[in-house]
Amino acid sequence: MTRTLGIIILLALLAACGSSPRSNYYLLTAGVSEAPRGDSPSLGIGPIAIPEYLNRNGMVYSREGNQLRVSSTDRWAEPLESGIKRTLAVNLASQLDTQDIRYYPWSTENAPDYGVSVSLLQLDANHQRALIAAEWRVIQPATGNPIARRIVTLEQPLPGGPLEVEQMAPAYSQLLAQLSRLISGAIEEHLGTGAETRE
Description:
Blueprint: H1 2-18, E1 24-26, E2 43-49, E3 58-62, E4 68-76, H2 80-95, E5 101-103, E6 114-125, E7 129-140, E8 145-157, H3 168-193
Parallel strand pairs: 1-4, 2-5, 2-6
Antiparallel strand pairs: 3-4, 6-7, 7-8
């Protein structure tokens, strides 16, 4: 009797495991058409800071009011901080045509020409749009001189109707491409004008 009961429990557990919903994994992607060919300027990427509520595997998005939904089946394929860092690096390398990319922390004896840090304030999606709000900085690490600092909010329209989770990663990727263009524009302006560093 005990053995029969054990088999029944084991079969029930196996059935429960077999009925678990399948997880879907998503990546942020860079908006790049060509690989960079140059070797300057050298870029340092990081640190990247994200809010604690986003620091999880499950994808987070808005519901009504101040409610958030954390998906149990739709997940990031890598930590969100790593995905943002990787995507910004590829975008900026392409936009500035440089293969010299380094990640924070870098050696103080061989600091990059420009350091790019991003503090993510909001990353969200609902049935109408995806949104990113971030503070970004560009400095010259060798001297600590500030080049540019901005707080921006960018939006990407979504098709409408109920939010489909598979829309989020492509929309966030588009927003990171826009953010990258703002950052690369500030670096290009500094390279082109030779202007004194500014806050």
